Amino acid sequence: MQPVKPRPDPAPSRWSYRMQRLMLTPLFRTVLRVGVPFAVSFAALWVWLSDQENHDRVMATYHEMRAAIETRPEFRVRLMAIDGAGAPLSEDIREILSLDFPQSSFDLDLAAIQRRVRELPAVAAADVRIRSGGVLQIDVTEREAAALWRTPDGLDKLDAEGVVIGSVLERAEAPELPLIAGKGASERVTQALALVEAVAPLAPRLRGLVRIGARRWDVMLDRGQRIMLPAERPVQALERVIALDQAQEMMARDIAVVDMRIAHRPTIRLRPSARDEWWRISRMSWGDSSQ
After folding, report:
1. Which of 134, 147, 235, 277 is the residue whose CA sits 20 to 30 A from 155?
2. 119: domain CATH number?
3. Cα angle at 146 between 140 and 150, to 5 degrees?
4. Is 23 part of any domain?
5. Is residue 270 part of a domain?
6. In which band, very low, low, confident or very high, does the pLDDT at 286 lie, cut at 50, 70 and 90?
7. What would the pLDDT profile of 208-265 be if each residue is shown by its tens digit?
8. Are residues 203 and 125 in the same domain?
9. 3-state SS class at 54
């Protein structure tokens, strides 16, 4: 009688059980299906590229393909257009960029071009793009001159923010702009323009504004007249002087200085000839009264 063989245990082994559980894991199946082939391919490619000859061949092919794309007619820039800038500013932009056309749009660093254009003092804002037709388009917002600033080096044009945007050789080149002078005047252009607006009734006689001690203004008129304004609320003090002039024609008299630095005690200073005449009339009046 042959011995009966024991029936095999149908339960899987421990390692077989663990492998089956792993195969049921989506991440593990993805690694086997994608990760392992990718790692093997990457390792093979790395080994192949480690050969300098193969590396050089790949780079040469890459540069040839890129050159073939970049030199296509649709990517060629043939000219530059500048809008929003006057002739002098346009010439400055073309000079600082010094671009030779035609050239590929891939060779143009638009961010660097925009940055260089914005660095020009006369430019408030700039936008650079390449538009259809192979045109490098530069849209410029130009700063507008608001005043002339007299310095030891000459006359500078300022915008309303006090930014120097250019220079002129003489006052006659920009007679429409108010003239300011003195240390710190460029930092108070807005206030200076408000004073120019307040003195509008005397505009034909206005010669300029002088910043004194970098803290207050003097208004200079023709015939050597000067209005000395306080450091605080200068516009209101100047409006008081204008009101007095309109009521009594004060500035038409022989006055050298109107001092408004002390708001509650404004004073006037006569010219030497007018002062002498006043003393002469006073002595005559005192003489008459003594008799």
Report:
1. 235
2. 3.10.20.310
3. 120
4. no
5. yes
6. low
7. 999 999 999 999 999 899 999 999 999 999 999 999 999 988 888 888 999 999 988 8
8. no
9. helix
As given in the structure block, the two tokens for residue 248 are 């009594």
Q: Of 118, 142, 166, which residue is a domain's last?
A: 142
Residue span of the structural domain in which 125 resides: 73-142
Residue 54 lies in a domain: no
DSSP string, 240-288: HHHHHHHHH-GGGSSEEEEE-SSTTS-EEEE-HHHHHHHHHHHHHHHHH
Tell me the C-alpha distance between 55 and 182, whole Å: 67
Is the pLDDT assigned to residue 287 strictly greater than 60? Answer: no
Chain segment 125-178, per-residue pLDDT in tens: 999 999 888 899 999 999 999 999 999 999 999 999 999 998 899 999 999 999
CA-based R_g, the chain, Å: 42
Vertex 202: Cα angle to 200 and 208 (nearest 5): 85
Predicted local distance difference test score (pLDDT) of residue 268: 87
Burial pattern 140-168, b for ≥16 Cβ within 10 A else e, equals bebbebbbbbbeeeebbbbbeebbebbee
pTM exceeds cut of 0.70: no
Question: Is residue 191 domain-shared with residue 254, that is, in the same domain?
Answer: yes
Are 183 and 273 part of one and the same domain? Answer: yes
Please say which residue of 122, 142, 162 terminates a domain. Answer: 142
- E-strand stretches of the chain: 76-77, 79-83, 103-104, 123-131, 135-142, 147-151, 154-158, 164-168, 179-181, 206-212, 216-221, 226-228, 255-259, 267-270
Per the structure, how many domains does the chain have?
Answer: 2
